[in-house]
Recover the amino acids of this structure.
């Protein structure tokens, strides 16, 4: 299955990019008082995108050799991915003040940036590895 790595990787990058853009858009709309951004069609699109991210991530994990993960970069990345999703969805679903919502949106942004840096460097320190 490793022969499909480039295609799987491209779908993963596209899906996680869409997830980030969609989460930031929804977060900004929610922060500006547009509560409809956390329900209905917006919610269904989010579930579709995030389901794709999870499915393709599992496919990547299954086709890549174990040695690639020897320095535990994937463990570090998953911590920030979880933080990204928890902070983003908490922002959209909990009844919070604007200051709390803004803090969660910033946390989601920073968590995504750290996960991206770790994935790019294939190192647990991500951006700080160089």
């Amino acid at each position: 299955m490793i022969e499909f790595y480039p295609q799987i990787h491209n779908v993963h990058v596209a899906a996680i990019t869409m997830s980030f853009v969609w989460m930031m858009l929804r977060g900004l709309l929610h922060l500006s008082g547009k509560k409809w951004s956390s329900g209905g069609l917006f919610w269904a699109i989010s579930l579709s995108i995030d389901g794709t991210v999870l499915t393709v991530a599992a496919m990547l994990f299954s086709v890549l050799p174990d040695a690639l993960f020897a320095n535990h970069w994937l463990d570090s990345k998953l911590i920030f991915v979880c933080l990204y999703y928890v902070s983003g969805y908490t922002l959209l679903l909990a009844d919070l003040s604007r200051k709390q919502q803004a803090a969660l949106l910033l946390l989601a942004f920073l968590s995504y940036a750290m996960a991206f840096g770790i994935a790019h460097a294939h190192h647990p320190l991500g951006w700080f590895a160089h």
Q: What stands out?
A: The mean pLDDT is 93. The CA atoms of residues 28 and 105 lie 8 Å apart. Helices lie at 5-31, 40-63, 73-93, 98-121.
